[in-house]
Every structure is written in C-alpha cells, then in structure tokens.
Write a structure and sequence with these properties.
With 277 residues, the chain is mostly helical. It is 58% helix and 5% strand. A hairpin with a 3-residue loop joins strand 2 (106-109) and strand 3.
C-alpha cells in the first residue's frame, strides 16, 4: 500500500513538474523543436556560470583589457537591443567581451553574453558587418537556441534536477561540460537560418545596412585559403543557401546596395586601428 501511494505521489509530482515547465519554460511555439525545460532565470544563472568559467580560463580565453574597444562593441549591442523584435532586453544581462586572440570567430552563451575574437574584428571591413555578426549572436540568445539543444540532450534529468532541486550544482556541471571542446558553439542549420533572419530583422530598425550578414559570407567566401577560417567554418556552417535567404530578405524589403552612409567603413577602420596586435 505504501509502495502504491509513493508511486502515485511521484506521478503527481511529475505531472506538476511538466505543467510548470509547460507554463513557464516553453518558448512561444509548442512544437517539439521549441520545447525548452529551462526558464529564463535558469538561463541567466547558466550564463553567469559559463562567463565565470570563460573569464577564469585565461589560457584559452584571454579577455582583452581595452575599455574603449569593448565600449565600442557594447554600444552596437545596445543599439540592436532597441529593436522592437527584441524580447529579453530587460531579462538577460547583455554584455560583450573581446577575446584577445587572432581567431576569426564569435559566439554567444545563454543569458546575454557575447564574445568576439580580436581576429574577427581585424578580419571585418565595416561596422555594418560587425553589427550583423553581433545581431546574429544576439538572435541565438533571444531565440534560446542553446537551452533548447540542452533540453534535447538532458531531457527529464534536467527537469527533475532544476524543479525539485535534487542537484543544486546542475547548472555548474552543464556550464563546465559546455566549455569542453567546441560543443558550446555548434548550432543546427535551422538555428543558423533563424539567427540570420532575426539579425536582419533587428538591423532594420537601425542605421546599419541590414544585409551585413551577406557581406560577411561573401568576405569569408573570398578568404577560405590558408586555414584561417577553419574554426569559424566548423562552428558556423556557411552554405550558399544562407546567402540566398539574405538576398530574398533584401529584395522583400526593397533594400538597395550598401553605401558608406549605412556601412560606416571609416568609423570601423578607426576602431580597428585602436586595437593593438
């Protein structure tokens, strides 16, 4: 009798847990691909933990101590966050850091943290393209891609640990696991397409050319020799289809060719020159 009662109690608890996440942890869509067991507060905590791990790992992630350069990128981020398409501006702790290596890449983690490698800054030619890259990473955060992937990976284990508090260190464990290799940086093709689309949407309300993502792809396509882009290509697949999708968005919104008035090439060049090798 006690065994049956205990089983019933477990079932009731399980139903309550599922109901709780159905109300608070899911994205606006109810499709399986959008199901998310993490609340936004979980994402904030997870992001803080990952950021602490990154800052502490000075060998792999040496943070550039340049207040002016960081402020330049943060101003771009803050402008993008004024887009009416942004949902979590006041929920996530949006901030950008520069990693002081010549790697050509950028990545984001849950809760609002964006990391740009110095190599990427040097690689790009104008501010509009940098804004597109930052908007793309913000889109990964806003669309909650990382925690949706984690939901698929950890499933019910995460649900039980987070809601029942049976494993208080679960977020720390996940953060440590995410920093192993480059698993943290990998997004699905659909995630990349969605981030491209929302990058475009975010930039529509700014003074930057919204097709900066296309310029980025074209720049990469012309510079694939020598292996400098190996890590970027391994974590951000760049099929020709992505360029076509951006072209379709530009056509749909009747946006012409970029000019200096929306590329801000000279301003970006001054910024690049302020960062020493």
């Amino acid at each position: 009798m006690k065994t049956i009662r205990a089983f019933i109690n477990q079932v009731v608890i399980f139903i309550l847990i599922v109901s709780s996440f159905t109300l608070t942890g899911c994205d606006e869509s109810t499709s399986p691909s959008n199901f998310n067991l993490f609340s936004t507060s979980d994402e904030v905590a997870l992001g803080q933990q990952i950021d602490a791990e990154i800052v502490a790992n000075t060998n792999e992630y040496p943070i550039l101590n340049n207040t002016q350069a960081t402020a330049y990128l943060q101003n771009i981020v803050n402008t993008i966050l004024n887009s009416p398409e942004i949902k979590y501006k006041n929920t996530f702790n949006y901030q950008v850091k520069i990693i002081n290596t010549n790697t050509i890449n950028a990545f984001a983690v849950p809760g609002g943290y964006v990391y740009v490698y110095k190599g990427l800054i040097k690689f790009l030619d104008n501010e509009a393209t940098m804004a597109a890259v930052l908007a793309h990473e913000i889109a990964h955060i806003e669309r909650r891609h990382s925690t949706k992937r984690l939901t698929k990976q950890y499933g019910i284990t995460i649900l039980m640990s987070l809601v029942l508090g049976s494993n208080p260190s679960v977020l720390e464990e996940i953060a440590a696991n995410l920093l192993t290799g480059i698993a943290l940086l990998k997004n699905s093709r659909d995630d990349e397409y969605e981030a491209d689309e929302y990058s475009f949407k975010y930039l529509l309300s700014t003074n930057w050319y919204p097709g900066g993502t296309k310029l980025f792809f074209e720049k990469i396509g012309a510079n694939q020799q020598g292996g400098k882009l190996e890590e970027l290509l391994s974590t951000h697949p760049l099929p020709q289809e992505r360029i076509k999708k951006v072209d379709n968005l530009l056509s749909k919104h009747s946006i012409g060719q970029p000019t200096e008035s929306n590329l801000f090439t000279q301003r970006y060049l001054n910024f690049k020159n302020s960062i020493q090798d």
